[in-house]
Amino acid sequence: MEQTDLLVVGELNVDILLDQVKGFPVVGQEILADKMLLTLGSSSAIFASNISALGSSASFCGALGNDLFGKFILRELQSKRVDTRFILESNEHQTGITMILNYDQDRANVTYGGAMNHFSINDIPLHALHQFRHLHVSSYFLQSALRADITNLFAAAKTVGLSTSLDLQWDPANQWEFPSEECLPYVDFFLPNEKELLCLTGQSDVEDAIDRLSGFANIIVVKKGINGATAYSDNGVLHSDAYINSHFVDAIGAGDSFNAGFINGFLNGHELSECLRLGNLAGAINTTAAGGTTAFANITSVKQTAKQIFNLDFSSL
Ligand SMILES: Nc1ncnc2c1ncn2[C@@H]1O[C@H](COP(=O)(O)OP(=O)(O)OP(=O)(O)O)[C@@H](O)[C@H]1O
Ligand SMILES: [Mg+2]
């Protein structure tokens, strides 16, 4: 049977962006917005979409409602050639949505979880894991019904020989309850950003945070925004600088694009230092266009951006 490169397990929702909002919402009153955009939201979907654009074959496993927003998400993923056959279309729960009110550089978000709140390990095709080379899980804290089984999921993937990666993302409840000691031994690449790593470990210094996890984590890749990314493992520390550029539009999804560049590099057999560089380049390319997926239409346009803006060859992809 033909193998697919990776299975992405994660949350699914649409984003509704309201721009040029006249004032702040007030209970009991109505205000107007001059611009609106409906787009594919969720970190996991941005990751799947972009790694597929980079050339890896990806299947998505998650849950949405049997409704218009659900159909929209399926269409968006399929347009990026992401396989959607493991996505559960619930008749009971609606598709999740995030309403985003943009005010200059800042935004106010309200999220309705819907179907993704009910997605559990029973909805994941564990019997089919051997069809994949890699498992990537994102947004642990948003998937309340899956959380208790996170270690079982990663252990199942390792048992059938997959490589694995995890991006916890932010905890909206700010509780940071994750079984690091049990789960991280089964995670080959743990991919937090700096702030998430500090919150998770209760430390104020990255080195101390790494020390806290070093007994049981494998490779920890810490994303540091404009400071690039650093990998920590038993073999030492490797750092790669960000590709700062003058074409910056916004950093929405930069972390997910970093993950896509990094894991795509790994699946293509590159060394850790090169994976870091490819992650930073994908993160930087993400920042040259609005939102998380615009800069990743397809491999040709990604290569063009790399050449035109960064004078770099993405040909090693
Ligand atoms: N302004 C920027 N210019 C160039 N590269 C950037 C910029 N911001 C982010 N990146 C790249 O993207 C990577 C990931 O960004 P960041 O550290 O913001 O991740 P994150 O906080 O997980 O993001 P997200 O909010 O998407 O989850 C960085 O390591 C860097 O390589
Ligand atoms: Mg992130």
State the gist of this model:
Helix content is 30%, strand content 24%. With 317 residues, the chain is α/β, with parallel strands linked by helices.
Structure explained in plain terms:
With about 325 residues, the protein is an alpha/beta fold. It has a domain at about 5-120: UDP-N-acetylmuramoyl-L-alanine:D-glutamate ligase (3-Layer(aba) Sandwich). It contains nine helices and 14 strands. The chain has helices at about 45-55, 70-80, 150-160, 180-185, 195-200, 205-215, 255-265, 270-285, 300-310; strands at about 5-10, 15-20, 35-40, 60, 65, 90, 95-105, 105-110, 130-140, 165, 190, 220-225, 230-235, 235-240. α2 (about 70-80) links the parallel β5 (about 65) and β6. The relative contact order is 0.13. The mean pLDDT is about 95. Bound molecules: adenosine-5'-triphosphate and magnesium ion.
Helices and strands in order:
Elements: E1 4-9, E2 13-21, E3 33-40, H1 43-53, E4 58-61, E5 63-65, H2 68-79, E6 88-90, E7 96-103, E8 106-112, E9 132-138, H3 150-159, E10 163-167, H4 180-183, E11 189-190, H5 194-201, H6 206-213, E12 219-223, E13 229-233, E14 236-240, H7 254-267, H8 272-286, H9 299-310
Parallel strand pairs: 1-4, 1-9, 2-7, 5-6, 9-10, 10-11, 11-12
Antiparallel strand pairs: 2-3, 7-8, 12-13, 13-14
Helix pairs in contact: 1-7, 5-6, 7-8
The structure holds adenosine-5'-triphosphate and magnesium ion.
Pfam family, one: PfkB
Domain Carbohydrate kinase PfkB: 4-294
Keywords: Kinase, Transferase
